[in-house]
Specification:
7-stranded antiparallel β-sheet, 5-stranded parallel β-sheet, binds flavin-adenine dinucleotide
């Protein structure tokens, strides 16, 4: 093996739902980042190797009150979802791999090492000094020195190598006072799954299972919804409940679990094809996974352990860096072998809830952060926080924290207790499109907050001031943000449809100000679910394959300089939510104006937020 010495600011191990946003966020916040991903593609359980759809706090539309509960995550995961929605109308799994790869490849401060697992660490004085990684395909070994190390491996490999304490298995009720927990602790976890995709053909398609496939009867699967007689649909994608192995060690027994899951998957398909009338005669398997999707492995012990009680009470945390809202979604660890039980129990949480930074950092290894399903949470809390959009917002929060720690030459472990540093992280996250419950834009550098804002027209509730309200979504529905932390309002300027387009929104200052960057946030229909899915029925609930109709498509950005309007940018066919316009050279402007000439479908213009800065912020 060739040994390569690398030096960076932040090393992120694992390029799944948490790792990709984490690495991007850290790089975009100014840090040099190396992202090591053990597989050939990014995305973890969302990648083409596993093909799970990304869901999150909106509970796939299950939070109700659409126009008052925009619970879909913002920031980097929204950028990814919108990119996939528009660039992947065909719903190809490989296209999501490409979108993630492209985002990483285009990020100037980010070095992506694919096929490169992190396999060890070198410690110095209780801190991680270097991570060791190996790329067998090129016979390379890497010693990667960094200031901050982030474990997004799901399995917690990096942290475990560094000796960070972790939990494994299900806690007993008394340990954290969780009413929903087992009476006594055990070593079991959620199981792993293999998914399949099938295609309907014009003629009958036979299937002969391998000799080692399991056999299932209709009675065995009575709790597990699958193809029904006479209903020729729903076979294109499934089944998350092809689950097994939580009674074993998801890391050490990974190969056994994969073998058994293949036997189960092919046995289920054999049952559908050959085990009675399922309307499946013309259907054939198109793809199925060989990489089990894991739900639960090690969970690190952080400065705080997130519990069922925290989630149910929406406990406010001063060091919140993300939020969740998926139900407490527990499964029998032995999966399909629990034939007399439903494959999951989904217990909704009343409101969106905070995820604190202290659940992403411990005291034992002060320069180690963790994000994703290896979060410091009980088994029950993980049952909600594990969904991928929640992992992604945790990842972005952790990435922003890592970059701040590097910039300030402090350990991440010291950040949660430092109110000023926490406020800086939170404000940075808001600026980058994230949502944090009960927090508003208080960025002292945002010139829009001191401007007079006017518009060509406005409809009731969509006054121009809504675009500088400090919050970028409506979450005051009955199951949105908890009471007192929701800030009612539409939080967007909406022009009057009767006035037609173009429509403009304008910031004015009493004396000229230096403007080097303008940030615009548009409406992307955050009340609707949006995710790449291979399920036709789920995809039908979304505006998939095209820009979201609320979004501003064509606009002109101008500054009033020395008495005349100067064009700064004129994008066409925009479909993204956050657009950052960095000027080649700052201008001294008396006013800034955004003129909307076309939307992606709506009859009026909507701008959720406008911000202006003297200098592009790292
Ligand atoms: C079948 C199934 C159904 C699910 N249903 C949903 C659902 O509908 N929607 C949803 O949002 N979530 C769902 N989940 C949960 C969700 O997929 C996981 O909790 C989530 O993927 C966790 O994200 P992560 O980034 O922490 O981990 P992962 O997605 O596991 O990503 C970790 C990444 O790190 C890599 N890695 C591992 N070890 C190393 C190492 N040593 N060095 C470098 N890289 C490493 C892995 O290859 C992987 O790419 C489901 C999970 C499964 C298995």
């Amino acid at each position: 093996m060739r040994l390569q010495q690398l030096q960076t600011d932040v090393l992120v191990a694992g390029g799944g739902a948490a790792g990709v946003p984490c690495a991007l966020a850290a790089a975009r916040c100014g840090a040099r980042v190396v992202l090591c991903q053990d597989r050939p593609v990014l995305g973890g359980n969302a990648s083409s190797e596993v093909r799970m759809h990304i869901v999150g706090a909106d509970a796939s539309g299950g939070r109700g009150e659409p126009l008052a509960t925009e619970a879909r995550e913002g920031g980097i995961i929204e950028e990814i979802r919108l990119e996939a929605c528009v660039q992947d109308p065909q719903r190809s799994a490989s296209m999501l791999d490409l979108i993630l790869y492209d985002l990483c490849r285009r990020e100037p401060r980010l070095v992506l090492l694919l096929n490169t697992p992190v396999v060890g660490v070198e410690m110095a004085g209780g801190r991680i000094a270097r991570a060791r990684a190996e790329r067998q395909s090129t016979e390379d070994a890497f010693a990667i020195a960094a200031e901050v190390f982030v474990d997004c491996t799901g399995d917690g490999r990096l942290g475990a190598e560094a000796g960070a304490p972790f939990q494994h298995g299900r806690e007993g009720r008394d340990e954290w006072g969780e009413p929903g927990a087992l009476a006594a602790a055990d070593r079991q976890t959620l199981g792993s799954s293999l998914l399949f995709m099938a295609r309907r053909h014009e003629r009958p398609m036979p299937f002969r299972p391998p000799s080692w496939a399991r056999r299932f009867t209709e009675d065995d699967l009575r709790w597990r919804p699958h193809a029904r007689a006479g209903v020729d649909r729903g076979l294109e994608y499934g089944y998350w409940w092809v689950e097994w192995g939580g009674q074993l060690d998801t890391v050490r027994d990974g190969e056994t679990i994969r073998d058994e899951l293949l036997a189960i998957l092919l046995g289920v398909w054999d049952h559908i094809k050959n085990g009675g009338e399922h309307g499946a005669e013309n259907w054939a398997l198109e793809w199925f996974g060989f990489v089990p999707g894991k739900r639960e492995s090690r969970r690190f012990r952080g400065q705080h352990v997130l519990t069922e009680g925290d989630l149910r009470a929406s406990r406010p945390f001063p060091d919140a860096i993300a939020y969740g809202g998926w139900p407490l979604d527990t499964h029998p660890p032995c999966g399909v072998d629990a034939r007399d039980e439903p494959p999951c129990r989904q217990d909704p949480v009343p409101y969106l809830y905070d995820i604190p930074l202290r659940a992403c950092v411990g005291d034992q290894v002060p320069n180690l952060l963790f994000a994703g399903r290896n979060l410091s949470a009980t088994h029950l809390a993980l049952a909600s926080t594990r969904v991928m959009a929640t992992c992604a917002v945790i990842g972005q929060g952790v990435g922003a924290t890592a970059a701040l720690a590097v910039r300030r030459h402090v350990d991440p472990a010291s950040v949660p207790a430092d109110a000023e540093a926490m406020a800086a992280v939170q404000q940075r996250l808001l600026r980058d499109g994230a949502y944090l419950i009960g927090r508003r834009n208080e960025d002292p550098h945002d010139l829009a907050r001191t401007a007079r804002i006017t518009a060509s027209s406005a409809q009731a509730g969509g006054e121009p001031e809504q675009a500088i309200s400090g919050q970028t979504r409506a979450v005051h529905g009955a199951r949105g943000a908890p009471p007192g932390r929701a800030f009612p309002g539409t939080h967007r300027w909406m022009s009057d449809p009767a006035a037609g387009l173009p429509a403009w929104l304008r910031l004015d200052w009493p004396t000229p100000v230096e403007v080097g960057e303008i940030r615009l946030t548009f409406d992307t229909g955050m009340h609707r679910p949006l995710t790449l899915t291979h399920s036709d029925a789920y995809a039908a609930s979304m505006a998939w394959g095209r820009p979201q109709p609320e979004t501003v498509a064509d606009y002109r950005l101008e500054a009033l300089v020395d008495g005349s309007w100067r064009e700064l940018a004129a994008p066409v066919d925009n479909y993204q939510r956050l657009r950052v316009h960095r000027l080649a050279a700052p201008v001294r402007a008396r006013a800034v104006r955004v003129t909307v000439t076309r939307t992606q479908g709506l009859d009026h213009a909507r701008v959720v937020e406008v911000r202006a800065y003297a200098r592009p912020g790292d």
